[in-house]
Design a protein that fits this description.
This protein has eight helices and ten strands. The chain is of the alpha/beta class and about 220 residues long.
Length: about 220
């Protein structure tokens, strides 16, 4: 039976507190999972995904991409905000391991953030997991994207992925997705997973969560 633990929501302030973050806290001394949602924010899929990861015994901190990126951000600003938040979190944790993950828009922007993290945060990173990223992005939510637009954007996601220097990078796609050139990723420590379905994986968040958990250690 799933253990029900505290669920917190934070929004206002400056620095570490500028992020619209929802926290699933676990008493287990596990790695910290920082997740960025898709452009719909805390929709059914992202919420269920975080619920399932938390049920496996992990602290999950999820950033509402719709709220945070509704106004345009720079990679440097976003990285600084996330760094401030993570430094605050790790100051009160015994386990200093970090997993970074993003879904859809959240996966698009994550490489730009990771490549600008300071060494004190980067050295904690165990895995970077990108769920259904696009080939290009910008750090701003556009209504046309939320309605299914698929135009070329100004920031090259594949090129940014290939700049990564992290212990492990993973992409996860639905088997029906074919827009992302997996073969263009040239990282040495890279894995790709294909799961049934399309961009929403047939709504099977538990299966996606189980796949993520393989890369948490």
């Amino acid at each position: 039976m799933k253990i029900l633990l505290s669920l917190l929501l934070t929004f206002t302030g400056t620095g570490a507190d500028t992020l619209p973050v929802r926290e699933w806290n676990s008493p287990a001394p596990s790695a910290l999972i920082l997740f960025i949602t898709g452009d719909a924010g805390f929709g059914k899929f992202s919420t269920e995904l975080c619920d399932n990861i938390h049920a496996a015994g992990y602290d999950v901190c999820a950033i509402n991409a719709k709220a945070y990126f509704w106004n345009k951000k720079t990679p440097e600003q976003t990285s600084a905000d996330i760094t401030a938040y993570l430094e605050k979190q790790f100051s009160k944790r015994d386990n200093q391991q970090l997993i970074l993950a993003g879904y859809s828009f959240g996966a698009d922007v994550m490489p730009f953030i990771v490549n600008r993290l300071p060494n004190n945060i980067r050295k904690k990173l165990v895995s970077l997991i990108l769920i259904s990223p696009s080939t290009s992005t910008y750090l701003e939510i556009h209504l046309s994207d939320m309605l299914g637009g698929n135009k070329k954007r100004s920031m090259d996601v594949v090129a940014e992925i290939n700049k990564l220097n992290v212990p492990r990078t993973v992409t996860i796609f639905g088997s029906d997705e074919n827009d992302f050139p997996v073969s263009a990723v040239k990282l040495e420590r890279y894995s790709n997973e294909s799961l049934p379905g399309g961009h929403h994986f047939n709504g099977d968040a538990p299966q996606v969560a189980r796949t993520l958990l393989k890369y948490f250690k």
